[in-house]
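S.,

Sequence below, as promised.
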Amino acid sequence: MGKYNKEKKDSYPKRLMNSYREGNRKTFTVLIILYIMVILTAIRCIVTKNYESLATCVLVLLLFFVPALIEDRMDLTIPPLFQAIIFIFIFAAEILGEVDHYYVKIHGWDTMLHTINGFLFAAVGFSLVYLLNRGTKDFNLSPFYMTLVAFCFSMTIGVIWEFFECAMDQFFNMDMQKDFVINNINSVSLDPENSGEVIHVKDIVSTVVTTSSGETVTIEGGYLDVGILDTMKDLLVNLIGAVVFSTIGYLALKNERTSKVADSLMIRPNEHE
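The prediction came back faster than expected:
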């Protein structure tokens, strides 16, 4: 059982909050500040009757408990810095990104978060393999293999997230895969002979879309690419983040020395007194 499971007289949320406060006061302070900001955002959503954003706020408040829940249930120690980054990441993605529309208002906001996502999940993948590698005498992986698994884990999470974005766009008419306006098209679908020849359409300045009802929508500046470039960009920056942490972890294992960055992001077994 985890370190705080002995406090059975306390409610479960209280025990989880105790795990933050007793683990690292700086991380606890970050958590409280973010909690207050989310609650204020939720109140604003109630006043403006934006109930969809209110649901997002409630979800964020619940997600803030997940790291302590994992520690408590799985008898692990998540470093305070890692927890603080997770809290800030959740707040930046859901409250600032979705509720306050930073994805649209601030250029590169989505790119920044996907890069951090690749870095963080490489750390998670590295930690999982590290725990397994230390948990048995019959399982001893080389530094390169551990790094490779961590990298692949991060990229797999990135791909699954893109699947999720695509599903939300297709089934719930959302726009999680943000569109780009492009000026050139290269497509075999435009070949009237269906011979497989690539037809090149260059220097597009506007596009007119006509619906079945006769309504027209003009896209100024070019042709609207519906998500593919955004997906490729997200996976690319996810790769960059994964490579950065994988390199740090590999060098730490290869040289058999500790790394402040790796140690501050490595999930470890709970140390019992």
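Residues 143-172 form the longest helix (30 residues).

Coffee later?
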